[in-house]
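Model it.
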Amino acid sequence: MSVEAPRLRIAADSETIERDLTRLVLTLVELVRQLVERQCVRRMEQGNLSDEQIETLGVTLMRLEEAMTELCDRFGLTPEDLNLDLGPLGTLL
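Modeled.
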């Protein structure tokens, strides 16, 4: 006689799933944005960029940050919501 293991089900409504998925996607976008920003600063400090490239990157990064702020506002998220807790590793951002 075999005993079946109970099936685990996640009780979640579509609004919760949408918010959590949005949070995850925006967290990944913010992580990439911060990495690109750090790379730009590093290249700028090394003198690898022209003044025009620095200006273009600065404007682009500002627009991306504004877009992130707008998306967070639209979905009711704060920057703290995007800083996922990774347990013993600490926080992501």
